[in-house]
Amino acid sequence: MFKRTGLRAAVAACCAAAFVATPAFAGAGSPGAPGAGDPYFPEYGNGGYDVAHYDVRLRYEPKDDHLAGTTTIVANPTQDLTAFNLDFALPVKSIRVNGAPSTFEQRGTELTVTPPEELPAGRQSTFVVEYEGVPSAVEVDGLNPWIRTADGALAVGEPEISAWWFPGNDHPRDKATFDIAVDVPEGTEVLSNGVNTDTSTLAGRTTWKWRTTKPTATYLAFLGIGQYEINTKPGAFGQPFVTAYADGLGDVEGAAKASVERTPEVLDFLSGLLGEYPFEAQGGVIPAEGLSFALENQTRPTYSPKFFAKGANTSVVVHENAHQWFGDSVSVDTWRDIWLNEGFASYAEWLWSEQQGTGTAQELFDHYYSSLPADDPFWQIAPGEPGPENIFSDAVYDRGALTVHALSNVIGPDALLDVVRTWVQDKRYSTGTVEEFIELAEQRSGRQLDEFFQNWLFTPGKPAATPENGIPASATRAAVVPPKSVAEIDATHALVHAHH
User: Domain Peptidase M1 membrane alanine aminopeptidase: where (predicted)?
Assistant: First the structure.
């Protein structure tokens, strides 16, 4: 759905604005890098500072998609900075750095800020950005992930969305905590991450305040604005369980609720496999329109109603909540590492199917391995190096899950569980690479796995049916009757893949 390449090289430019004279720096500082150096998207994110906290304050008008905002960023320079970049697409009115008006230049989603004084490394700084615009009208390099609906909007997307509603360091390497406050006309609801700390109404307008106290990647911060039925009750582990169902869901409302309301049960199941749930709240959001995919927004996945068109679908609930560990708590270090998100979330669906008695993980492995012939294009994408154009391909999800189960066959399910639990604990609130995971798997299992991972993750083509590849003889025979869960999993993945 979204074009992934060339975002930061956009030709579209916003006018530059200057508020102070060009500063003269006495130190030996330098500008921060305009990108985080991601091999697939080199200009995503920025260098030279780490964000600790975002305070995002917005006023939004559903009738015309007008958004006015002030975002305060608390950051720690990692070098002596004479200038730095933020990722942001909307028109900027002013920027203050440590209280001082600062010059800036905006081109596409690259917002370059020059403070009047050099920012010393290690000394906390504050950036305040004031802005105003219509997000749905701002396109950069043919891209606009903001979703306008009849009664509001959705800020939901991967790997980019934040630049259309708050300025920041838009790469999973730089996580931060968030306070998000949105002022809307009375009678309009606002959903975001974490816990609802306050909702107040004055003079016909309501302000909704949300807070997440755990490190959050920018693309996992979200907004849902419109007409929603919001329910808050105790969930798993005694945490707030917040669900929101849009008005107008029609015939799918029952199936949607029958699925998303099982989130606490799903989290209980997943925590038994993966260890302690890493966040402070849980839930789910289902808009009535505009969304054709699901996304693992931290603490509050958002689902298209299309997932429930044929009835209840717990597979997608399992998938998005497994991402709370694989993707949200432990994020990709670069977008090349996306198998670590999608392969494990997809495999969690297989384990849920086994627990529910609708097909074992081995039966699902046999089905997918045998049903795709060696000349199918599916096998030509390597999940460990898919390329920027294929980071959300079927192979990353389904061949990714096949890889995880094959690893279980090679090292044993107990050893796999040990590897996974160690990974999510050691990398909690951080990032990881595929190579680091491979190294951990070898350490914890005591097995040399280079050839195994080379065949499954890095080599185009269907892995040979050998014990060394974790493929039993049963996998070479087409299943006479596919596991009952296959239709639900396939429907889930068809929609999940479509949005990327």
Answer: 311-456
